[in-house]
């Protein structure tokens, strides 16, 4: 096994593109090291991207925020402006693993691990986040929901690395939120989850909405129909009930050790209602 | 010297205080040595190959490629552990469980093992072992396994305990029955009858420290084993028998223990490590991974239980009956029998009958788990008792008080009780402020009772007094819950010296006579009895030495508060001699001063507890939260109250996990789906409230200080108490443990849909 810590993105891309055997990218390592220890993966090459310039920074730009691929989730929680603009994304990132794990793990790692139960992904999808990808043939930017293609699989080509996640600058009267269901209080993986992002007009009517449901299909679901239910409403009781029904209906869950199909459907709807209410309140709605 | 174990009603100066434990600093600073912390020069890494199949014939194992891998020093299969059990069926099962002989009987069953120079080589070697399996149909569910159509796990099992021996083999190893009176008559006298069926899923003890050992077999036929265990003397017997060693040539040293709860009363890896060391000619360290711990060690039974209880309108129970089916893993067991014995032990019953069935399934061999079998039986019985009280219109505590067993009651499992604590725990609960705490919406309160036998057993202890007057206490019961502190308190009490002068250690198997293991809540009960006996023997020597120093008859010397005192006026001018002064002169008065004891600690007092808990349920998700929890239990005498409280809280915590989320989940392929702490959900700290405790002290007449075992009873009531609380919170009777959110939500939905 070779461990290399390149100083530039070009070198990292070159190493991955040229790898003959199985290769892995190391940022926080909270998934990779566990999988290696369990004997599930045996990479021939490990490329540690933490020394690459800029990858450990959160940059506030004219357009919004750029979160480097090596920024630990705990750092997201310490960034006041990011927390104020995207509280749902930050609260999702701060649910991953434990305090100790949050000091290492990254949202890009969470995205590329491609688990349908990943905590930060529904929040990122709801937020309309985009991934900046560096690769052998240059850079490209795609919506985060286009990164995972199934459990453990991504759309990244050989040699490609996500270098940052982009979040838009916030319009007034906007808010997002994320919640997951776990049987315990912490140290667990989502049985089902929901993220909602809303923008209101001055009267408190929902102008735009994005609703994402996690752990309810092979990838995180962006539920377009749920957004349509919310738009134009002031989140009254009837709207919430329709939202729950639509989200439950959109799920394509499985029965497994963490929950049943029936349970995931029902609770997806319950969480969507609760999360929408929080996002609405954060957006200043009453 | 005859030892009188009877309760003396004495007062105490050390016993009942709360000094810090002697192993505490080492544990919090990381210096304590657990099973994996022993190392030897030249030691190899042992690894075990395990069956991926729930049930399969092992046609052939080809180890030749693994043996040729550089760095591999030994590869073993069942052929390297020949059958030396000489018709001892229980030992044969242990041998077969350590290394599958003809068939793999569960997912995780060991089939081969390697010893190599490092972990990487050992892992590679496992991949090079070729096992030719013939996969057979399997059965993992206890009810399914009892059906005639179920795959047969062992064709030599013909159900025992039936009037006639069956003509066909089955998965039911044994039927047992307990009780007295006539239940038919009793039910005919009842005004109200509750009849229900219950299920509980399989759980693991969940100890944080995985099984770990270092084995070293020497060319001269001696061997050493360093191991994390609840009973190193028992491990020595088992390992010696399975490997054909002489017991006294195998020295077993127990490490500190990161939890056992019954799961470390059983050998798994140790005979394998010894066999590897014997073949390799070098020491071998074998540490199980968490995955292996779940798949191949531990678990308790999964159960299916039917209960029927009848009562008159005045609240008198007229008859009680239960049928209990417990999974044993793929080997014979006596788990349902224990359930059948404990089920109704809390109550005074004219007519009672319990029947137990031991059921073989393709799951790991069932091991003891803290009051083994009792929590599931209590769940079923206490749920039905609660429902019956409600149907009659009586308060559940009053209903239980009316029917509680008392001194002189004939227990449902046979014996007549002496002084017992069930009534007092119920009275304490009735008056506890917890019962008056206000409940909010979606919250429910439940309570339940529990019983455990407790055990005494063989015990051997040495007490040595150094020339500086310090006392070294060597005990043979592994310290799983603070017993070194408790036993030091007992030695200090008996000798009349300060706790800080006593240092207790757990001695290895070459340093003391045989000790039964730390199970059955016997550690402090039996070793304190042996410590008292050893101290009294030492006091006899101390008196003799003082008599010698004074040159007076020994009968004129008494022992008072740590001093020899010359009695009678004729010695009036002699000042008393302290233990330290006598010890300082011991070289001139006859050599070292010591007290020894060997005894069978009979008369372990039975133990009862009553728990109260408040649960909040989210009716939209089935999520639960424990709001308040109170344990009331009889300790006989709490030697070190802090560690008694710790046992009460620990049992409640494990019971909460079992009741709400912990379970073995098997796939259709018979493989365990959740062999790790992520998906086998034991509670984390933030899941639990502060668990309040109340210690009652109803002295055990068979112990000088009145001590009863306290370790196990606290896990008996929680399943039922929590089920009663959840049922009261949501208005639906919960009959399947664990009450995970999907199960609660499904029950609520079924109720809503009518």
List the helices and strands and how they pair.
The complex is a heterodimer of chains A (286) and B (754).
Chain A (H helix, E strand, L loop, with lengths): L1 E3 L4 H10 L4 E4 L5 H6 L7 E4 L9 E3 L3 E5 L4 H6 L1 H6 L1 H7 L5 H4 L4 H6 L7 H8 L2 E6 L2 E6 L4 E3 L2 E2 L6 E8 L5 E8 L10 E9 L5 E9 L6 E2 L1 H7 L6 H14 L10 H22 L4
Parallel strand pairs in A: 1-3, 2-3
Antiparallel strand pairs in A: 4-5, 5-10, 6-7, 6-10, 8-9, 11-12, 12-13, 13-14
Chain B lengths: L23 H6 L14 E7 L5 E7 L1 H5 L3 E5 L12 H10 L4 E2 L5 E7 L2 H10 L1 E6 L6 H5 L25 E9 L2 H6 L3 E9 L11 E6 L5 E5 L4 H12 L6 E5 L15 H11 L3 E4 L2 H7 L6 E9 L5 E11 L7 H8 L9 E8 L14 H19 L3 H8 L18 H9 L12 E10 L4 E9 L5 E5 L7 H13 L6 E5 L16 H28 L6 E4 L2 E4 L10 E2 H6 L1 H4 L3 E9 L5 E11 L6 E11 L6 H20 L30 E6 L21 H13 L5 E2 L3 H12 L2
Parallel strand pairs in B: 1-12, 8-27, 10-11, 14-15, 18-19, 25-26
Antiparallel strand pairs in B: 1-5, 2-4, 2-6, 3-5, 7-15, 8-13, 9-10, 9-12, 13-14, 16-24, 17-18, 17-23, 20-21, 21-22, 24-25
Protein name (chain B): Xanthine dehydrogenase family protein molybdopterin-binding subunit
Pfam families (chain B): Ald_Xan_dh_C, MoCoBD_1, MoCoBD_2
Organism (chain B): Mesorhizobium tamadayense
In CATH terms, what is the architecture of the largest domain in chain A? 2-Layer Sandwich
Radius of gyration of chain B: 27 Å
Structurally, how many domains make up the residues of chain A? 2
Structural class of chain A: alpha+beta
Category from helices, strands and their pairing of chain B: alpha+beta
Number of DSSP strand runs of chain B: 27
